[in-house]
Amino acid sequence: MIENNRSNKKAARYAITYNKILKMIRDGLYSEGSKLPTEPLLAEQLGVSRSTLRQALGLLQEDGIIEAKKGIGNFVRKILNEDNVGLERMGNPFYKSCIDTIDNVEIMMEFEAATEHVERIFNRKTSVALAIYRYYKEKDSIKGSCFSHVATDFDYINSINLNNENEVLDFLETKIYEYGLSSMLEIRLVPAMENIKEANKGNVSKYYQMIIERISDKNGNLIAYNKYYIPFERAVFKVFRNN
Q: Taking 50 as the threshold, does the pLDDT of residue 210 lie above it?
């Protein structure tokens, strides 16, 4: 049975066209991030109708191989590093889920006196917490952000110079996953409210994938509460499973 009631004859044409374009991409004719020829030119090169080409391009978009940028054209998507994906493994979920290549992370942090909200997050009394924004960038363009509350009452925090932003960033990006025993992720689709727009300046997305990450230590105490925001169009989630 052919999806969407397409005829066998028509299905064969768009399927063949799909495979031809995919082969050109895999053979390196069109590299990651590059733009495909215009639809009229590509249809002519492949010897197919515009209608058949659009069906093939639509499937390539569905499969995450290309993306259409309105008014610009079709581009080959950057492929996530397979060694760095898999939300079932502990590690920074932003890198596992965002298709952009991040080359810089900016950080802004401040000490925050404990409030009822903070104590509710950590489910215990605490005098001070770290409130931290991270801005994930590619070529100075913000691709996503994270807002974190980090507890200051666990052992490992004493080994970090909290006045050194680089040390704090290294802890949040890597070492916290070595210290923490477990983490829980919750993923939601949220509209771009004003606070999200402010943190993700330059993005035009109307929706964001919000990843809430709760990291706990060996005693079961929550030590970090992270909220990552990735533009809806730039997020891909993968989970590896075995029998």
A: yes
Same domain, 120 and 219: yes
How many domains does the chain contain in total?
2
- Letter for the amino acid at 131? A
Contact 215, 224 (CB under 8 A): yes
pTM value? 0.71
Instruction: Confirm if 210 and 93 have CB atoms less than 8 A apart.
Output: no
Among candidate residues 54, 76, 98, the one where a domain is terminated: 76
Question: Could you give the count of Cα atoms lying within 13 Å of 204 in the half-sphere of its Cβ?
Answer: 2
- Of 76, 97, 114, the residue that ends a domain is 76
The confidence band for 206, taking pLDDT boundaries of 50, 70 and 90, is very high
Residue in this structure with the two tokens 């925050």, named with its chain if needed: 112
Residue 15 to residues 43, 69, 154, 172, 228, Cα–Cα distance (Å) = 14, 23, 56, 45, 37
pLDDT at 218 over 60: yes
Instruction: Give CA–CA dist 163/216, Å, rounded.
Output: 23
Tokens representing residue 196 in the block: 């999200």
For the chain, the first-to-last Cα distance in angstroms comes to 29
Q: Label residue 120 exposed, middle or buried (CB < 10 Å: 0-12, 13-18, 19+).
A: exposed
Pick the closest to residue 17 from 59, 70, 78 (CA basis). Answer: 59
